[in-house]
Amino acid sequence: MKIPMPPGAVYDKEALLAGVDLIGRTGARQFEVGYLHEGVPSEEAGWYAQARWSGTRLIAENHTDPVEAVEALAARVLTGGQCQHCRGVTSLTEERPDPRGRYMADGTVWTTKEQQAAPLCQWTRQGPRWVRGCERPASPTAAPEGR
Ligand SMILES: [Zn+2]
Questions:
Q1: pTM of the model
Q2: Contact at 8 Å (CB) between 132 and 78?
Q3: Which domains are present in the chain?
Q4: Which of 55, 62, 104, 125 registers the highest number of CB atoms within 10 A of its CB?
């Protein structure tokens, strides 16, 4: 996918890569980054990022640059979504997002009750990649000291 970066823009390439990679991993059928207004300074162009799955669509609008829009979209995807690995509720913080019925990417509904019963899976961005909570190895136990 080609992202229309403003000329001369200084941006966080890893954040952009992480966002694009994440959206790809969710199985989105369409992913688009763009802006609404021509002939204005880039930060006033109204950047947006949107992704479409078969059953639903998410958009992050009114951002000052494309990376911010992609990051905001990633945050929306990762807040209250369902981890495809542990089936937990995804979050960017240790807080459990408000459970609410949610349309999943395949068009089915994940009910509030099911969400409440699911474990929490906290995602963090590590450089160019979003890493799921259930993927990170447990912190290594201290190696026993030599005698
Ligand atoms: Zn998980």
A1: 0.82
A2: no
A3: 13-131 (3.30.160)
A4: 125
